[in-house]
Amino acid sequence: MNTRTTTSPVSQDTSRLAALATGTGPELEVTRPADGQPYAVVRQTAAGEVAAAVRRGRSAQKHWATTPPKERAVVARRFAELVLDRRNEILDVIQAETGKSRLAAFEEVVDASMMASYYAHTAARLLKPRRHVGAFPVLTQTTELRHPKGVVGVITPWNYPFTLVASDSVPALLAGNAVVVKPDHQTPFSALLVLDLLLASGLPEGLMQVVVGPGPVVGSELVGAVDFMMFTGSTETGRLLAQQCGARLIGFSAELGGKNPLIVMDDADLPAAAAGAARACFANAGQLCVGPERIYVHERVREPFTQSFLDAVARLRVGAGTAWEADMGSIISPTQLDRVRAHLDDAVAKGARVLAGGTPRPDLGPSFFEPTVLTDVPEDATLFREETFGPLVAIYPIASADEAIARANDSALGLSASVWTSPSRGRTLAAQIEAGMVNVNEGYSAAWASHGSPMGGWKESGLGRRHGAEGLLKYTEAQTVAVQRGVPIAPFAGMSNETFANLFTRAARILNHFR
Fold first, then answer.
1. Which of 85, 99, 96 is nearest to 201 (CA)?
2. Structure confidence at residue 12 (pLDDT)
C-alpha cells in the first residue's frame, strides 16, 4: 500500500476562538490525533453556566424571533460565502482536531457552505403563513403559522465537527431560535470556528453559544434547560437523551449509528463500483456514520470486483498533514483505534480472513491504521452487526437481488446504503432497502449533499430528519389560526340539536367531495 507522510498542521493562534467559549471552568487541553501533541486549550463550562447560557440565549431570541425571515437569511448567505473565503483556515482547524486528510476536511467546508446557501434561499418560503381549507369554505379562513421553539440544544460528535455544528445550528437560527451547542470534547475549536464565522456574518450576540465539557455533565444540563434537542452520536446515548427529553416533553431529533450496506450487482460497472466503494468505505478513515461497513457482491462478479476493490484500496495514500496528497488520515484517538483492533482481532479469531491491511501505522502517528478488508466473517463476530466506525470493511457474497435486500435489511440500524447497478434497477432496489438514504452508483455523497431532500435514520439509526424542509421546520411549533365569519358552527337560535345534526350531515356529504 502506498503511504505518504507530510508535515503536521502548523501551530495556530487559537486564543481568539477559545475566548468565544462559554465557561470559566477547568482548562481542557485538545491534542492533535495525527501526532498526539497538544493543539490548544479552552475553558470548560462550569456547573450552572449551561443554564445561564440558555437564559442569555432566550433573552436574545425574543428580538430575533420578530426579525423577518428574509433578514435572518442574510446571515446564512454571508456565512455560506465566508466559509469558502476562509477555507484554508477552516481546513487547518478541522485537521488539527480530527487528524483527517485535507480532502476529507474539505468535504465539511463545501457541505457547510452549500447547506447554508440552501436554507438562505428557502427559509422565508418554508416559514411563511400557509392557508388551508377551513371547516367551511369562505366562512372559515384557516392559516398555519410557524413559531420558533425558543432555545435549541445541539450536541455534535467529533467525526464531522464543523459541518454538523453548522448543519444543525443554521436552520435552527433561521427558524428564529437561539442555539446552544455542546461539541465533543475532542473537537471544540471547530464548533467555535462556526460561531466565529456566524458572528462575522452578522449574527447578533447571544444567539449562538458554545459550551464545552463532558457529555454526562454538560450534555445533561443542556437537555434540562433547552426547548428542543438535536443530537448526533451513538444509538446508546441517543436513547438516554430521548428519555430525558421525553420526561420534559420537549422535542428531540437524532442521527444515530449506522452499519451501512453497499451492494454490487452482476450488471454493475465494476471498476467504477470498486473505486467508489474504496472512497466511501475509507472516507475519514471509516469514521463516517453514512459510510459502508458491509459489502454484498453478486457471486457472478465477486472475484473481479474483489480484485478491483483491493487494487483501489492499495492505491489509497495514508498520511498526515496539510498537504492534499493523502487520501486517508488518522483515526481520532487511541481509544477508537483499540475498538477497530478489537473488532478485527475478534473476527480473525473466529475465522475471518484479512485481504488487505490489518495493521497499525505507528510510523505515521499514534492512531493511524491501514485500510482493512476482510472476508469470511462469521455471524458471531462482533463486527458482523456492530458498527466499527473505523477503516474496516467486510465483503460477503450474495446470489440474487432478493438476497441482497434481505441481507442489507438484516440489521437493527438503517441509516444509509449504496447500490451499484443500472439506474433503473437501482431505483427499484433502493426502494426496498430499510434506510433513510440510498445512493445508486455513489457511496454516500450524492444523497447527503442533496440538501433539499431530508436525511436521517430508520429503525435504531435515529429520529427526525436534517436537510430539506423537515430539517428547518422541526425547529418550529405549528399553530393553526381559524377565523370564523358569518355563522357559527353550531345550532342557530331556536334550532334543535337534531335538526342541526341532520343539516350538518348533508353539508358534510357535499364538502367531502371537495376536500
1. 85
2. 57
303 in catalytic set: no
pTM above 0.85, yes or no: yes
Q: Give kind and range of the element (H or E) at residue 273.
A: helix 270-281
- For the chain, the domain total comes to 3
Are 129 and 242 within one domain? yes
* The CA-based dihedral angle spanning residues 169, 174, 177, 178, taken in that order and rounded to the nearest 10 degrees: 50
Q: What is the DSSP string of 163-198?
A: HHHHHHHHHHHHTT-EEEEE--TT-HHHHHHHHHHH
Phi, psi of 37 (to 5 degrees): -95, 155
pLDDT of 372 over the 50 cut = yes
pLDDT, tens digit, 9 for 90 and up, residues 129-163: 999 999 988 899 999 999 999 999 999 999 999 99
| pLDDT score for 138 | 87
CA atoms in the 13 A half-sphere facing the CB of 277:
35
Please tell me whether residues 79 and 32 are part of one structural domain: yes
User: Cβ–Cβ contacts within 10 Å for residue 132, how many?
Assistant: 11
C-alpha–C-alpha distance, residues 131 and 141, integer Å: 8
Residue 184 lies in domain? 15-256
Give per-residue pLDDT as tens, 251-279.
999 999 999 999 999 999 999 999 999 99
Average confidence score pLDDT of the chain = 96
Q: In the numeric block, which cell numbers belong to residue 507?
A: 353539508
Question: Quick count: other Cβ atoms within 10 Å of Cβ 492?
Answer: 10
Is 255 an annotated catalytic residue?
yes
Query: Please, how many CA atoms are within 13 Å of residue 52, restricted to the half-sphere of its CB?
Result: 9
- Cβ(289)–Cβ(448) below 8 Å: no
Picking from 396, 371, 398, 355, the residue whose alpha carbon sits closest to that of residue 279 is 371
Selecting among 97, 108, 221, 255, the annotated active-site residue is: 255
213 lies in the same domain as 121? yes
Exactly one of 281, 289, 442, 460 is catalytic; name it: 289
> Tens of pLDDT along 191-250?
999 999 999 999 999 999 999 999 888 999 999 999 999 999 999 999 999 999 999 999
Query: CA 199 to CA 215: how far, in whole Å?
Result: 26
